[in-house]
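Record Thiamine-phosphate synthase, 208 aa.
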Amino acid sequence: MPHPAVAARGVYLITPDETDDARLLDRVRPLLAAGATWLQYRNKVVDDAARHAQASALQLLCASAGVPLIVNDDAALAAAIGAAGVHLGEDDGDIAAARALLGPDAIVGASCYDQLALAQRAVQAGASYVAFGAFFPSRSKATPRRASTPLLRDSTALGVPRVAIGGLTAANSGPLVAAGADLLAVISGVFEADDPVAALRGYQACFA
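=>
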């Protein structure tokens, strides 16, 4: 069933694949202070024990900064560390099951790629937000499906925040925000920048 939407607008940071726990926290901390709206913990290169340790440390950091932490792909991990929610791809589990596990106030997001129908089904299943993309070629992972700017306009009636993801830069994100993107999801555009805080502010300026 539909779940009441969360209200969010701004930059949705996604963590890079980082094996050094202390370095991960050092990279994230100034970005939370600079006004990141949400943080998603995503790490594809460490084992389950390391993921639990990193996610737990990030949860403490995010709680002190007042920034919701969302765990990628793993509702059980999100529940175990008390995260704000979970983000699910199309093969990462059932939205309704994640909602039942995490509770009515959790943020449950869904990747909907280039498909409005998939987003509609996700919202009906209880998703708090939907993510469309990739809008541009991404440095973080293969992105064979391409979302278009009109999809953001066409999805207004969903009634939940819409996330744009995939190859976003401060230069190409403005039109996506103008078309209806509530959140810009970014990994390398911030974390691989020479000055990550300045890069974050560049994305934030798209909402000005």
